[in-house]
Every structure is written in structure tokens, then in C-alpha cells.
Design a protein that fits this description.
2 helices; alpha/beta; about 100 residues; six-stranded mixed β-sheet
Length: about 100
């Protein structure tokens, strides 16, 4: 299950967030600042060193909401990655199926 960092703003929505993010496994988190990312940054595909969390990109679905997808940076070779957007597609599908 995804680790969800609740705030007073999203506390009442934790059951819905748990249902939505529950399909992603234990390696993801939804941070208190609203970023969906891996808890442990992945290995760099270029040099195999561990990457670091490096902000997010924001995606919006009109009428549904916005999500922040985590980005990663390799300090050794400079390679940048973003969490796969398929996660956002799965979240949209799951939310629409619950509505």
C-alpha cells in the first residue's frame, strides 16, 4: 500500500486516497505536499547509481484534479527521469470507476 502523509486539508479524503493509491504497492508514497513518487529513488539507467528526488511535474485533468508526479536526478551523470505517467492514467481510471 502507498504511504500517505495526511494533512488537515486531505485528512477526510484518506480513505479515498487509500483506495485509489492502494494498487501501487509499498514502494510509492503520496507526500504531505501532494507529490506521488517512489519512496526510494530508482537507480540511474545510465550509470546505475541511486538517483535523488528532484521536484515534480504537475498534470491536470479538467474537471477531475491535478497530480504532482515525482522527478529524479542522478548527481553522478546528470540524467533526469520522471515517474511513469501510466500511474496518472491508472489513478484517473480508478477515480472515474469510483464516481
Amino acid at each position: 500500500m502507498v504511504t500517505i502523509s495526511p494533512t488537515f486539508k486531505n485528512l477526510s479524503e484518506v480513505p479515498n486516497l487509500t483506495n485509489t493509491f492502494g494498487m501501487f504497492g509499498n514502494e510509492f508514497e503520496y507526500t504531505a505536499s501532494g507529490i506521488f513518487r517512489r519512496i526510494k529513488a530508482p537507480q540511474c539507467p545510465e550509470c546505475i547509481n541511486t538517483m535523488e528526488h528532484n521536484g515534480f511535474n504537475q498534470y491536470t485533468k479538467k474537471g477531475l484534479g491535478t497530480i504532482k508526479i515525482g522527478k529524479y536526478l542522478c548527481k553522478h551523470c546528470g540524467k533526469m527521469l520522471e515517474e511513469k505517467r501510466t500511474a496518472w492514467e491508472k489513478i484517473k481510471t480508478e477515480l472515474f470507476s469510483q464516481l
